[in-house]
Write a structure and sequence with these properties.
The protein is an all-alpha fold. 82% of the residues lie in helices and 0% in strands. The protein has 2 domains: 38 residues, no CATH class; 208 residues, MetI-like fold (Orthogonal Bundle), CATH 1.10.3720.
Length: 252
Amino acid sequence: MRAGVRLVLSLNRYLPLLIVAAVWQILAYTPVRAEGLLPTFSDCVVAAWGLINHGGLLFQLGVSLLRALAGLFIAIGVGIFIGLGMSYVPAIRRTIGPIVTMTYSLPKSALIPILFIWMGVGNAADITVAVLGAVVPIIVSTYEGIRNLPLQYTRSAQSFGAGKYHIFFTVTVPAILPFIVPAFRIALAFSMVIVISAEMVGSFVGVGQYTYNLGQNGNYDKMWGCIIVTVVVIYIIDQVAAYGMRYLLRWQ
């Protein structure tokens, strides 16, 4: 009985994806589609399998993931540092705060051509744009987490004779984790999207450039297959990040 309930819940969870696949398959056989631009979903899946086995798709995807993760880890370090500085040093908050506010709504993809001019085509520009895309959510979450820290937490620790470093690691860090950890997940998605966008604009390797070249050469089934695999991989990484988030916050 319980196994049947779990099966039904799993089907309900993935039902929207099945509906999208079915609609895609139907549209590919109707005049609604542009001629040749929308292959059937089944053809795209077959093409994706071929790219995985013989087309080097996993290598291209791995390059993009490494760039995105490198940018993410740099953004986490820089973002937490700036967020802490804004929380504890008023001068930093007055200086950096307006810049963070202005860049929060700025489309980071608009910076891609500028970075290519300054840094050239390659890993440096791609990783830098990933940092810019991921760092703002980390800064804001760190700052908001400390700002919303109840004052009685630190006062209670001080009443027991705890020093400032002990308070920071045993009181402040656990209290702000519910703010920061979800931001990691958001920043991961931002960094991956912006890296793929940068690769499409100018790069010699990476899943963005790989997908763009397939479309330019008219291999639309392979292009869509590449997109499907990329989306699935990003979804898996997101679910792993969600599991890690629940594990870190299991004490809540």
